[in-house]
Write a structure and sequence with these properties.
Elements (H helix, E strand, L loop, with lengths): L1 H9 L10 H14 L4 H16 L4 H17 L9 H13 L4 H19 L7 H4 L7 H6 L1
């Protein structure tokens, strides 16, 4: 083990990443750029990624946000900036019909609120489309699952 540590230091690699977070993040950023979604949405997602990188959010959290936003684009066909409260509500209802865990439902809500606040609310306020959205899933829904 000591030899491995010394070898890593000699190579200048103090930070081993067995999960290949950098590679995975680069893959998902490229995927956003080449995905068949409106250019405005691509730019908004990339703006969101840049913000998260400046804020030093974890790479796994950034990947989770990207995958969720791309998944949402499969359901909602209009541009994110044109989404209304009703569009978001329909998407939330759609995800509630899926067999997701309560923590997944919570993450979906968190990512949506965070994305809309950062990109369309200048990281100062929640736009009308997501202002109503609660980040927590109710205990009643958790118990049913």
């Amino acid at each position: 083990m000591m030899n491995q540590d010394r070898e890593d230091k000699e190579r200048g690699s103090n930070n081993r990443d067995i999960y290949k977070r950098d590679t995975r993040l680069i893959y998902w950023i490229k995927r956003v750029k080449h995905e068949s979604i409106p250019d405005a949405d691509k730019q908004d997602i990339l703006k969101f990624i840049e913000f998260m990188q400046r804020e030093e959010k974890s790479k796994l959290w950034m990947i989770r946000c990207i995958t969720l936003l791309l998944n949402m684009k499969q359901y909602i066909r209009k541009e994110f900036r044109a989404c209304t409260k009703e569009d978001i509500q329909q998407y939330i209802d759609y995800t509630l019909k899926k067999d997701y865990s309560p923590s997944t439902h919570t993450k979906i809500r968190q990512v949506l609120k965070y994305f809309f606040k950062v990109v369309y609310g200048n990281n100062e306020y929640y736009p009308e489309a997501v202002r109503w959205l609660k980040s927590k899933v109710s205990k009643g829904k958790q118990r049913r699952e």
